[in-house]
Amino acid sequence: MRGKKMVAPFAEEEYSLDLTRQNVVNWNLLYQKALPISFPFIIPHATWKENEYYIHHCPSNISAEIVLEGSLQFTLEDGRRTLKANELIFLPIGEPNRISAGPKGFVRKAVFGIRGFLAEPILASFRLESGKIYRLQDTGRILQMLSHLVSLYRKQDPALLNQASTSALEILLEIRDQIHEKWKPISSLLQSVQQKIQNGCSIPELARANRLSRSKMNTFFREQFNLSPQQYSTRLRMQTAEQFLLQGKQSIKWIATRTGYHSLSRFTTAFRKYHGISPREYRKKGKAAGCVKEEMEGASSFPGNGG
Length: 307
Known about the structure:
Helix content: 40-55%
Number of strands: 11
Order of helices and strands: EEEHEEEEEEEHEHHHHHHHHH
Radius of gyration: 20 Å
Distance between the termini: 15 Å
Number of helices: 11
């Protein structure tokens, strides 16, 4: 089943797949809401045969491809590579790529798209890179977690949005732990920091909740990020504020509250100290540079159905 369609803001998307051999699960509301991170589409099962391919640009999502059987071949800007069973690759946002069944002429895989204003910073903080192949220890565990997320999507309940975002983060934590064993002791810490961003992060409280001394927690963050826990938290809050400001939809007071600053003046002071300009100036600068992007709505605006 050959197809071709336009995908803004890039050129044509082309594929030669029989799309009936894919199980695509979408929750369109996840394309529209400003969540820290989400998987707006999941393909828990797809089977590709010889000579089938897909060409697209991942304009608004990082696409995670997990090979379960067979092999998958990718052509990115820096060359061609092959993904084998129990291996994972994150396809970078905006980079043209061609995907096809590997040398064996068969692949069974699972796919999910990562969307959200913290997608790239979170991957980087986990030492996960786009375009790099990683070997997983337990793909069954990840598929089980994806299946749970699919069950949430099928309910189509807006009250479950935050739960879906948290579940997406937990899947990334699981992937990170399978790839980097030594990161397991800090997993709950990072999850706590991500989840508590709206209320601000009390470092002593986080240490107590994770049964760590402040000095031990400080050592973890220094070793992994070269930042103190407070510096890491501030960076995360500032990155979140940046994305809200560039979206141009919410008031600065609302953004201050969502990033854990319950005083507009404190938020403005912290933002100016971090960026050298006020939040209002940052927003104007972003608009002048054309950084405010329109939200892509629905699955039709993203080539997820062929991933």
